[in-house]
Amino acid sequence: MSTGSTHSAYRAAPRSRDIVVATACGVFVTVMVGAAYAAVPLYDWFCRTTGFGGTTQVSTAGPSQVLGRMITVRFDANVAPGLPWRFVPEKNSVDVRIGEVLTVNYLVTNLAARDTVGQASYNVTPPTTGAYFQKINCFCFTEQKIAASETREMPVVFYVDPALAQDAEQNGLNTITLSYSYFPVRQPEPLAATTQGGGRAY
Questions:
Q1: Is the distance from CB of 191 to CB of 165 less than 8 angstroms?
Q2: What is the pLDDT of residues 115-132, one digit of tens each?
Q3: Taking the C-alpha atoms of 21, 25, 28 and 29 in order, what is their torsion angle to the nearest 10 degrees?
Q4: Fold of 57-184
């Protein structure tokens, strides 16, 4: 092989490696970006499926059996700074049989002189009971627009799954706390008002 051919082969080899490395980096970045977008829905699905972190479950109907074992369910209400609401449960706690469907209302009052919008998140403690706390109806994760000085009832329909009685780790459980936190939702700014001369007011 001539010297010129040898030098050409040496130059071609690094270029080929550079192309492979660049392609691999591009694929890696694409996979990582896709994983980042998928992380939130996957985490939400995982929490709802397993009850991880005290995330409660969603049901469409009550269970087929009601047990004699009683559980005290406590209700907690919180409002984040920036939302001028008074948010309280109508009852601080209830005693409910496992499998019994119950409805409890939370009360929201808008203390502002304007309409305001909030959205609630929730969890239960102990966190391990999230897999057994079933909600049939709930106001969480739905934007609530409350008029000035309006008071509104927010019902929660729930039951404690009878499967909890089969979990040996829950044998000593006698209290579950359902906690809601309301956060302000920023509304889009209205379009700038139009002046009489046809221009915009800034």
A1: no
A2: 999 999 999 999 999 999
A3: -170
A4: Ctag/Cox11 (Pfam 04442) (2.60.370)
pTM recorded for the entire structure: 0.66
Alpha carbon 20 to chain centroid, angstroms: 41
Strands 151-160 and 133-137: antiparallel
CB 123 within 8 A of CB 130: yes
Alpha-carbon distance of 44 to 37, in angstroms, equals 12
What is the distance between the alpha carbons of residues 85 and 119, in angstroms, rounded to a whole number? 12
Q: What is the DSSP letter of 36?
A: H
**Among candidate residues 179, 160, 132, the one with its CA nearest the CA of residue 69:** 160
**How far is CA 141 from each of CA 65, 122, 181, 193, 202, rounded to the nearest angstrom?**
29, 9, 11, 32, 35
Domain residue spans of the chain: 1-50, 57-184
Mean pLDDT within 164-171: 94
Beta strands across the sheet bearing 144-146: 93-97, 70-79, 175-184, 116-125, 144-146
Over residues 43-86, the pLDDT tens digits come to: 344 444 444 444 557 667 788 899 999 999 999 999 999 999 99
Q: Which segments of the chain are extended strands (E)?
A: 57-58, 70-79, 85-89, 93-97, 102-110, 116-125, 133-137, 144-146, 151-160, 175-184
